[in-house]
Design a protein that fits this description.
about 160 residues; alpha+beta; four-stranded antiparallel β-sheet; 8 strands; about 30% strand
């Protein structure tokens, strides 16, 4: 007594394995097309010159003796200058998230009566961030990776090896 092929369970198993591979491949294709990788910079020479200029800004901050202390507790950011004795009318502070560019943000802070720069956040800022502090004229800059929130002051000082 012979049965039809579609009534055999082994036939369905043999068809199911290649079919699942095709479905997984199509799903992978849609994921890859939906979120493509960024292209490598075509003008790499200009990018290299820009990196060298950024390193020179960090070296300038080092030469000027720029240092800051940073604390973020209870959604309040406090930055105090501890290096050079100079009054800064405005500090530019950039927060760069290591993986999500849409979370990056910028602050332009003015000093309070004590010379400290403060900002109150509406929502908590947590995780790893690359913070860049620079002058309003953009003649120097300091970069450092920090984990937030920080209940104690952490030292932010120029390091040309971390410049980019």
């Amino acid at each position: 007594m012979k049965t039809s092929w579609y009534k055999e369970p082994w036939a369905w198993l043999v068809f199911f394995l290649p079919f699942s591979a095709v479905v997984a491949g199509i799903t992978t294709l849609f994921i890859a097309l939906d979120d493509p990788d960024e292209l490598v910079a075509g003008d790499y020479y200009k990018k290299g010159k820009a990196i060298n200029m950024q390193v020179s800004k960090v070296k300038m901050a080092q030469k000027l003796g720029m240092r800051f202390e940073l604390k973020l507790a209870n959604n309040e950011l406090v930055i105090k200058p501890t290096g050079i004795e100079k009054v800064f009318p405005v500090l530019n502070i950039n927060f760069f998230h290591p993986t999500l560019a849409e979370n990056d943000f910028y602050l332009a802070l003015t000093p309070d009566g004590n010379g400290h720069f403060r900002h109150q956040f509406d929502q908590p800022v947590k995780g790893k961030w690359k913070i860049t502090i620079s002058s309003f004229e953009d003649t120097w800059k300091i970069q450092q990776d920090v984990y937030l929130p920080q209940t104690n002051f952490i030292d932010i000082k120029p390091d040309p090896a971390k410049a980019n």
